[in-house]
Amino acid sequence: MKMSFRLLAAPVMAAGLLAVLSGCATNVNTVSRAQPQAATNYISDKRVVTDNTLARTVRINAINQGVVSGNLLKIQAEVENLKNDLRSVRYKFEWIDKDGMAVNGPTEGWRVLQLQGRETVNISTVAVSPRAVDFVLKISEL
After folding, report:
1. In this structure, are residues 92 and 111 in contact, taking their beta carbons and an 8 Å threshold?
2. For residue 74, what are the domain limits?
3. Does residue 45 belong to any structural domain of this protein?
4. How many of the other CB atoms lie within 10 Å of CB of 28?
5. For the segment 65-77, what is each residue's pLDDT rounded down to a tens digit?
6. Which among 89, 81, 79 has a CA at the least distance from the CA of 113?
7. What's the pLDDT at 39?
């Protein structure tokens, strides 16, 4: 009886390990409208890369700008995971007024973003004050 249990244990454990590993895939499939109806207001941006490893892992594809509540700037950034596995990064938006001075607010701070393999997500924020006319998006590895 012991002999047959041992003979079955290895294949069962191997099958279980294979099932667990195949369930760990984190790639994301997406579906969207073939001819989008949304009119985006993409803005040109300036990028400063100080972490080349992060730049090869996570990319900002585009930045879209709008106005909400009549006078508050809203920024949305499309962030893409360039790798096949789960990535966690942190990011924050900083707001700048017309004189180049920081506009501080209670909601500004680092936020954590988890991206599945090859996933693209949008992160957004609304200015903390109508004085904010510019922004800086900072992103770093955890």
Report:
1. yes
2. 52-141
3. no
4. 13
5. 999 999 999 999 9
6. 89
7. 84
On whether residue 74 sits in a domain, the answer given is yes
Side-chain half-sphere CA neighbours of 36 within 13 A: 5
81-124 pLDDT, tens per residue? 999 999 999 999 999 999 999 998 776 789 999 999 999 999 99
Confidence of residue 40 (pLDDT cuts 50, 70, 90): confident
Residue 95 belongs to a domain: yes
Q: State the total domains in the chain.
A: 1
**The domain that contains 121 carries what CATH number?**
2.60.40.3230
Residue recorded with tokens 């501080």: 104
In a domain, 31, yes or no: no
Q: How far apart are CA 77 and CA 61, in angstroms?
A: 7
Q: What pTM was estimated for this model as a whole?
A: 0.75
DSSP string for residues in the chain: -HHHHHHHHHHHHHHHHHHHHHTT--B------SS------B-------S-HHHHTTEEEEEEEEEEETTTEEEEEEEEEE-SSS-EEEEEEEEEEETTS-EE--TT-S-EEEEE-BT-EEEEEEE-SSTTEEEEEEEEEE-
